[in-house]
Amino acid sequence: MKPITYLALGDSYTIGEAVPASASFPVQAADMLRATGININQPDIVAVTGWTTDELAAGIAGATLHPPYDLVTLLIGVNNQYRGRPLDEYKAEFTALLQQAIHFSGNRPQAVVVLSIPDWGVTPFAADRDRQKISREIDVFNAANKEIAAGFKTRYLDITAFTREAAADPSLVAEDGLHPSGKDYQRWAQALIPMFLTAL
User: Fold this and answer.
1) Of 62, 101, 139, 193, which sits most exposed with the smallest number of CB within 10 A?
2) Could you give the percent of the chain with pLDDT greater than 90?
3) What is the arrangement of strands in the sheet containing 112-115, beginning at the earlier edge strand?
4) How far apart are CA 30 and CA 114, in angstroms?
């Protein structure tokens, strides 16, 4: 049996900024699959902290990838929101990225999972900002990526609710006061597993 392959596309939330690489959600998800007896390679990850949709597209163009992949995840958009980029621009660029993700899966939409954008508005980093405005904007971006994902018949995982629990549980935030902790990423990975198993 040749090993299962997994491509994770995104930004800081995909590489696991401020936590060890082993605590990132793609690596934890692969470890969980391995624990069930599935032979899976370490994930190929194309993600850099701060990337917007257009920067991820450029990163993919410059990456050495080996499709088709058995599993693909896409999580992108927080930096579009953070920088005040227009929603219409996000929709167009996210659509193109999702089409690429589907292509990388060997044109198997059911093997692609879109993750919703976390709400950084609840973190200590946002203490001096308008938290409600951030949450509202994140909701609008997530409504857009969810609708686009549905249109392409990919899977969709809402992890935003997990991240909002950090308002009452500081252990869900990494030491930088902004990004999720390994504990929160573990919950994302656990939620991904049933989707991955169905795709496989």
Assistant:
1) 62
2) 96
3) 44-47, 6-10, 71-74, 112-115, 155-157
4) 17
Bridge partner residues of 40 (DSSP):
4
Choose among 16, 14, 5, 27: nearest CA to 55: 14
Query: Chain-wide mean pLDDT for the chain?
Result: 96
Number of neighbours of residue 200 by Cβ within 10 angstroms:
12
Evaluate if residue 1 carries a pLDDT over 90: no
Residue 109 tokens, joined: 């939409």
> Tokens 């080996």 — which residue?
66
Q: Are 192 and 199 in contact (CB under 8 A)?
A: no
pLDDT tens for 41-55 read: 999 999 999 999 999
Residue 14, classified by CB atoms within 10 Å of its CB into exposed (0-12), middle (13-18) or buried (19+), is buried
What is the enclosing helix (H) or strand (E) of 92?
helix 87-104
Sign, CA dihedral 48-24-119-125, equals negative
Give residue-wise pLDDT tens across range 108-149: 999 999 999 999 999 989 889 999 999 999 999 999 999 999
Contact 48, 11 (CB under 8 A): yes
